[in-house]
Write a structure and sequence with these properties.
The complex is a heterodimer of chains A (about 150) and B (about 425). Chain A starts with a strand and ends with a strand. By secondary structure, chain A is an alpha+beta fold. In chain B, helix 1 runs parallel beside helix 7. Chain B is globular and about 60 Å long. The chains are: A alpha+beta (about 150), B alpha/beta (about 425). Chains A and B meet through strand 1, strand 2, strand 3, helix 3 and helix 4 of A and helix 7, strand 22, strand 23 and helix 8 of B.
Chain lengths: ~150, ~425
């Protein structure tokens, strides 16, 4: 499958990925509206981690054998047939947070402001290129199909 | 190939999905005592409370059986397993032959010897039918107050659901605090305080000796210390034990639960077992025991399914973990809740103002337990460190700091994780 790859050596910690992710998952998909008019505000599904000179953006890895899929008690977490992405059906999720308990990357968030369901990277639901990758000024994020070894 | 599965919950679904990944043609048969299409047992408390509608209790889409070409025998019970001749005997006398068998019969509720348990108004709380019967009873009878026996996860979920229905609840717990198997003293105290504030009545170090009433229903319970409590309903919510009654008169070996090897196969070849019915290695406690939690059940079913379909996979064991919201407070507990002896190091942080509590237990630089109350974000990072037994001595001082994250971890671990099957960074 096509995945987001993270190149920590190029990341400058600008957090543009977070901003664009939030906008993409807002109702209007407009940056000013998303920040100034929409409440509760959308949540970014990518997280920039920083420590000294090192930084990188981290989002769901869409694991092949995903612990969150196995731990989900409702069946809300599912594998999208078309893109192979791990997605969350927010209508089914009851917010039990089993997924948060088992994700070793810590990339599933509680969406407390809206309906308290887990919010995670959805690869922008099949967009040609996820917006975090599209808007990364330094190519620290890439979206590729690799033959995995 | 024929694959037959006894059971219809997480382990069974894990097995079906694994089998279908490797074998599109083989015949899959599912036998279940319950009449329902695969549903989520942990959701019965949400259903009883009215937080979700019935259509949301289903664990997989309606076409799950059709899409996976499964022949179902629902509302049918297996009466005997004839291991040598590879036959199942059903309750109506029908015989089913199998080539590979998975026993995924789950757990059954613990019911201690209490006088009067056959009275009307006594319930267990593990199945959809339990939830339906409770709801029917509450509606039909004037039930004002109920006694829940057991202050663990099942008991408290039952309590919450019944409180949502407007009942007055008393929880009776044998130990000196609720959630003693899941939390440490501090965490239990925090939840106890919240429960009391919501109006629940908690009685610890006590138990019900007799359920009293007439043919019409329950009137009161008699406690060990002689106290009597008026109530119209009693719920057993103590927990579950492996449902191994079916193994009687079979050569399949069991102890507390069914014993399985690293491929989830029993001592009889071609017969596998997975889920709450088995005992597995606890990689933290160095013992073999049942750890009845949903993620384990699915994983074990998946591993069993792979092996049944001819793709060897190993199951390395697990450890206790739970995520549960009580009184609107999210909590996660992973591994040990309390350091059992000297030689353990404890890092903790309590913020009484915001009601958050975090604790990490270390042994020789490796995390062996973690508790999160009120604030659970990124808890899975710690679960990962426990599972992989990563030495965190180098980052010990920042383990509970707000900016602790994936970036704080040893580079090798980051690389190892992201190099896992299909996982890349």
């Amino acid at each position: 499958m096509k995945r987001i790859y993270v190149h920590e050596e190029y990341c400058i910690g600008c957090r543009l990925c977070e901003i664009h992710c939030l906008v993409q998952h807002s109702r209007s998909k407009k940056i000013l509206k998303a920040f100034k008019e929409e409440f509760p505000r959308a949540v970014s599904r990518v997280l920039v981690e920083e420590h000294g000179y090192l930084s990188f953006a981290l989002q769901c890895r869409h694991c092949e054998e995903a612990p969150c899929l196995e731990a989900c008690i409702t069946g809300a977490m599912y594998r999208d047939k078309r893109t192979d992405a791990v997605l969350c059906n927010e209508k089914k999720c009851v917010g039990c947070w089993m997924c948060i308990m088992v994700c070793p990357f810590g990339v599933i968030k509680r969406d407390l402001e809206s309906n308290k369901v887990a919010s995670k990277c959805d690869l922008c639901l099949g967009e040609e290129m996820p917006v975090c990758v599209q808007n990364c000024p330094n190519e620290a994020l890439t979206f590729e199909e690799r033959t995995e070894t | 190939m024929n694959y037959t599965i006894i059971g219809n919950s997480a382990a069974a679904v894990g097995a079906v999905e694994a089998i279908r990944r490797y074998d599109r043609k083989g015949e899959i048969v599912v036998v279940s005592r319950e009449p329902y299409s695969v549903y989520s047992r942990p959701l019965i408390s949400h259903l009883l409370a009215g937080h979700i509608q019935e259509n949301r209790i289903f664990y997989r889409e309606k076409d799950f059986y059709k899409r996976n070409r499964i022949q179902t025998f629902l509302r049918r019970e297996v009466k005997a397993i004839q291991a040598k001749s590879h036959l199942l005997l059903l309750d109506d006398g029908e015989r089913l032959g199998f080539e590979k068998l998975l026993i995924a019969t789950g757990g059954c509720p613990i019911i201690p010897p209490v006088k009067g348990i056959n009275r009307r108004g006594v319930f267990t709380f593990t199945t959809w039918d339990d939830a339906k019967e409770i709801r029917r009873y509450v509606r039909k009878k004037p039930v004002e107050s109920a006694v829940v026996i057991g202050g663990g996860l099942i008991g408290l979920k039952a309590m919450e659901a019944l409180m949502a229905l407007g009942l007055r609840i008393t929880v009776i717990e044998l130990m000196d605090r609720i959630l003693s198997a899941t939390f440490d003293k501090k965490a239990s105290e925090m939840i106890e305080r919240q429960l009391k504030a919501k109006g629940a009545n908690l009685i610890t170090e006590n138990t019900v000796e007799e359920i009293l009433g007439s043919h019409n229903g329950i009137e009161e319970v008699l406690l060990k210390d002689g106290r009597r409590l008026k109530c119209q309903m009693v719920i057993f919510g103590i927990g579950v034990v492996p449902n191994i009654g079916l193994l009687k008169d079979t050569p399949i070996r069991s102890n507390k639960g069914i014993r399985v090897n690293i491929h989830m196969e029993t001592n009889i070849s071609s017969i596998y077992a997975a889920g709450d019915v088995v005992e597995i290695p606890d990689i933290l406690l160095d013992t073999v025991r049942p750890i009845a939690i949903w993620p384990n059940a699915y994983r074990q079913g998946w591993i069993a399914g792979c092996n049944m379909a001819g793709t060897p996979r190993r199951y390395e064991g697990s450890f206790a973990m739970n995520s549960i919201e009580i009184c609107g407070i999210p909590t996660i507990s992973v591994g040990m809740a309390e350091a059992p002896e000297n030689g353990f190091e404890i890092i903790q942080e309590l913020d009484s103002k915001s009601g958050t509590y975090k604790k990490i237990i270390l042994k020789d630089g490796v995390i062996v337990g973690a508790i999160f109350i009120g604030e659970i974000d990124r808890a899975g990072i710690y679960t990962g460190l426990i599972r992989e037994k990563i030495d965190v001595s180098g980052v010990k001082d920042i383990l509970l700091r707000e900016d602790f994250g994936f970036i704080s971890l040893p580079r090798e671990y980051r690389k190892h994780l992201v190099r896992g099957e299909g996982v890349f960074l």
